[in-house]
Amino acid sequence: MSMRPTRRGYVVGGAVVAALLAGATFGARALDAVVLPGAVALVAAAIQLRRAPALDFDRVVPAADVAGTAATLTLTIDGDRTAPVTVRERLPAGVDTVGRSRGGTEPSEAVVDAAVGGDPVTYTVVPQRRGEHTIGPATVVATDVLGLLKRSARIDRRDTLVAFPRVGTLPNGIGAELRAATQPRASTQRDEFDDLREYVRGDSLRDIHWKSSARHDELMVQEFADRADPERVTVAVGTDTGASRSGDSGETPTGDAAERAADTPADRMADAAATACVSLVRGGASVTLTTPSGGVDAAPGRIRPALRHLAVATGGRVPVEDADVVVVAEGDAVSVRFDGREYRFEGRVDDVVSIADVDDVADRAGRSGTGGEGRAAPATGGSGGRSVVPDGAGDSRSRPASAEGAEPGGAE
Q1: SS3 329
Q2: How many domains does the chain have?
Q3: What is the pTM for the complete model shown?
Q4: Is the pLDDT of residue 406 over 60?
Q5: Which pLDDT value is given to residue 363?
Q6: Which end of the chain is more exposed for a tag (fewer CB within 10 A), N or C?
Q7: Average pLDDT, integer, range 371-391
Q8: Residue 392 lies in domain
Q9: Looking at the domain assignment, is residue 412 inside a domain?
């Protein structure tokens, strides 16, 4: 730990030195009224800070949430004696304190007043980009009661704040069309017969097998096995690997590069992929997601693994061209292909929500087996087949186009 004067301490020290020089030069005894109190104050400050308290520093980082959502960090500082301190936390570029302008490309810091041995203190930040953001190291600064001297201790501890890709709404009702195109067909038949058992109160009367009941002289109920497997949708995502502009390489920047980089195609890819996966899970489907960084599964009630994977996924060639849903970020545009159609839109997804809303939607989908209402329904083409047409077909930001080699009429 190092001890040095504060601005106030420099002023007091300068006044003491000036008074001593003036007294030595002019012999003005009245200057002793400046020297003595100032010197006593500085000595008292040094004595107070001569032994800094032994610190036990703890930082609690909240669970991952989507980028753009406020995250509250908790600091606890314990020691062998109580003392007021100021904590300065290093924040990476792209992680802003509340009230700070968005889009910073340089590291910043959060300044928090606390007390050694006191109650935990909190501060709130907003990660503006997906990824793993390193919080720390921290500097704990103790100041004497007069604010003349300060003593700093560097806490070389770093914690990782994970920000998921932005989850929102694909423009012009594409998300609703996606769910409609991949939604499982309702079965018109009952599940397969499995076994007979004795009737218990609450069983449906229509499940009673009367012939077996007569033979056993007691009511017997039929049991059926669920033969329907959860609908599984394959989703493959990637970027345009031919992009050569700075920041458009498609890879997720790390280290100093991450601190300087702005939005990249890989970020837009991850945002659109996360939104598509949540939309599918909301409809009750299970998802197999494949990115240039690997693969992961998602299902109702288990959407976080996919979001965690997309938080650090890098760009590159689409790994599975024949997936049910293909998301490609190219330059400033994103295309979503499914059901023989391609939709293109500029920029990012809209109406970003927090992970609490995402979990609630996914959990309800898992319990009910069905999704919420969509914003648009598939339209019936004139040829009798089904075509997928977005709500805003006239909007220049999103346009459907027949995928190469697609057959007319859509999915069966």
Answers
A1: strand
A2: 4
A3: 0.69
A4: no
A5: 53
A6: C
A7: 32
A8: 171-185+229-402
A9: no
